[in-house]
Structures are given as structure tokens and as C-alpha cells.
Amino acid sequence: MRKPLAPMSDLELEAVNLVSGSPGAVLLRHDFAERLDASPSQITRVIRKLTDDGMLVRIGIGMYAKARRSKLSGKVIPVLSLSELARKGLTLAAGADWAYHWRHEEGQSSHRLRQHLRTV
Prior knowledge:
Elements: H1 10-21, E1 26-28, H2 29-35, H3 40-52, E2 56-60, E3 63-69, E4 76-78, H4 82-94, E5 97-105, E6 108-116
Antiparallel strand pairs: 1-3, 2-3, 3-4, 5-6
Helix pairs in contact: 1-3
């Protein structure tokens, strides 16, 4: 028998709305701090709750991905592939556009990460 869900606080509801309403699949802790009227410890607690509930997966320090349950294993997994998460995470964290480039030299492929600086 499943245990009943605890009632959500207003802060938790705001955080759930932030995650579900976010167009991207990657969120930074800064996004929560910027949009929620809460102390750093409250933000930590609400992010931990969303992670425990399977709505988010931590993919780096201060970096989280939207999550879903795997149909095969039942475990919580990110909604995007690892390569997409890396690209989106680097873009958000570094504030620059990142692109993967494949280089073919003498029949061998090597994976290269190249930064394209944004020109404004």
C-alpha cells in the first residue's frame, strides 16, 4: 500500500509550477532562487523534495533536469538524452552556445567540443 502524499506548501506548489511551466528541460538553482520568494535553505529543501518525488534529477552542482519514470525499469530518468542534457547544461551554465563537432582524420572520428561565443 502506498503512503499518502503529504500536502504541498505554497512554496512547493510554486516550484512545481516553475518546473512544469519551464520550456526547457534543464533548470539551474538560480532559476528557483530568482523566481521563488524563499531563503537559500528553503530552496534547497524544495529542490530536494522535487528530486525525491521524481520530478527532477540532479545532473550537476546546482543543475537539474526534468524527469520521468522509465517504462522499462520504473526508475526516475531525465527526459532528454545525456548528450542533449550536456549541451543544454553547458549553454545555461556558461552563457554561451556550445556545439559538438565531429572531426574525421585518417579514418578515425574524434569528438570535439567547441564554443561559439555569442555576439550581441
